[in-house]
Amino acid sequence: MLAAFAAVPLAGSVPARAEGPVAAAAAAEGGAMTFARHRIPGLIAFGDAEWFPDPVRGPLTVEALPGGRTGVSDAKGTLAVLTAGARTVAVRGPRRSFSEQKRPFSDVFDRTVGGGWGMSPGGGTWTTANGEPANYSVQPGSGVISLSQNNSSYFVTLNDPAIGDFDATATVALDTAPAGADTSIALTFGHQNFDNHYRARLAFSPSGSVRLSVEREQADLVTTLASAIEVGAGTGRWRVRVARSGSTSQVKAWRDGAAEPGWTHVVQDPTFGAGRLGIRAIASKGSTAVPSRALVHQFAATGTWTRPPVVTHDTWVRLLPAPFQGWNTETDVRVRAWATDVSPDVLAYCAMLQTGAAPYHEGGVQVLGESGYGPLNPDGARVEGADFHEYMGIEWTFPGGEHKPAPSSRWHRTLDCSGMVRMVFGYHLGVPMVYDDTADFDGTVLPRRSRDIGPSGPGVIVHGDGTFADIQVGDLVLFDADEEVVTGRLDHVGVYVGRDQDGRYRFVSSRKTVNGPTISDLGGASTLDGTGTYARSLRLVRRI
């Protein structure tokens, strides 16, 4: 995944510009490759001369292709594909891989939810098992499991079954002292379902002691992997931490506010691989401390997906200064230059907004780096409405006179789906932008909203019937994905990035569940094929 950068203005309308300022800025910073090395290391073999393409000096073959496209070839094969009426050009360049790992997250439950725990801020949606919806709720500061009877397990897990290695900590407490038998809260992991999982079990006894054990439940049969060891006493807040690498799990627990100890248990067991993370609570048989409540005050984790999406190809997406109207000498010179250009393109800019991307500032304003989706509602859902200038935290006046004031800090470093597209194509690559005034929608400017980008955006519509046979890397993909809004109206937009290691057609978009731009499948597969939400709701493909 190649990252590079461009010198860009910080206020006013975005000027149309070609690659010249990008090259100048790269030179000023010591080169685009130096920039990339410092921000996204390990994904390009720096120093490998074969990675850098040779200049294109021989004759080019230009031929008409279906769909208003023009193909350009050299001795090595296809060099570029241009489309009549569109500015984006698919150009052959150095081979790159784009991937993504799970974003670290921390849920402090600063929301109010009934009948479940709602959505964690970046970790996924909490799902419940056993009991009734009324057994699960969130009050500000606590995820609550109501233990309405003894000898019954209650589970809350994150709907992300692909977590392999991880490091997770839960801060837990009971609101009622145990009586008659233990009350336990466990951090579950490798969770397949409530009958198949591991758990780091913190047992609070009627005597006041607190013990930590590790258990495996398989097909409803419980095996103790590490016997209970007393780690303290009292029912105040406790922390349980589990770190797993391969088949080795390390477990510890300590009273919140005390010094963190060394690992209490280290166990090896390969029975379950990737699985969900979550919480299990139970008042043991014989307990008279029911009804009572198990409280989770924080759940934080870093982790990796065992098989993250990977898109590898040699296609770079560049922009002409004006829509393509036919091959000429100027375009010939430009395409030849692009073949050896490693300054940022559409895909690089998208990548520099995804999970783990390092911040980059221009004139004291951040213009690149990991983006969120938006601030939180009281119910924990992300708020839509973050445009490119909200990410940067500055005011903006559009060419038609529409003015947007500087946002409050809660909007900084966030982008909704169309905001991400406008940050990439508009702010960084110079496509003119407007806001909501339909009088400005002239087919050359980029509107604010998905519903307007689809029918009225710049470029050409490649498919308007929900198909994608002629899709090209860099195309916009638009969806009617939200059934709770207006049916039949476009409500989501992303950028097609190519086929992944399984041949799936994968796109990047900014989403609420992941909390920002993603090519992952958390909260719905980011693929155009298959039976997922976005595959079913694809409506239009546009080439800028």
TrEMBL record:
<feature type="signal peptide">
    <location>
        <begin position="1"/>
        <end position="18"/>
    </location>
</feature>
<dbReference type="InterPro" id="IPR000064">
    <property type="entry name" value="NLP_P60_dom"/>
</dbReference>
<keyword id="KW-0378">Hydrolase</keyword>
<protein>
    <submittedName>
        <fullName>NlpC/P60 family protein</fullName>
    </submittedName>
</protein>
<dbReference type="InterPro" id="IPR038765">
    <property type="entry name" value="Papain-like_cys_pep_sf"/>
</dbReference>
<keyword id="KW-0732">Signal</keyword>
<comment type="similarity">
    <text>Belongs to the peptidase C40 family.</text>
</comment>
<keyword id="KW-0645">Protease</keyword>
<keyword id="KW-0788">Thiol protease</keyword>
<feature type="domain" description="NlpC/P60">
    <location>
        <begin position="378"/>
        <end position="544"/>
    </location>
</feature>
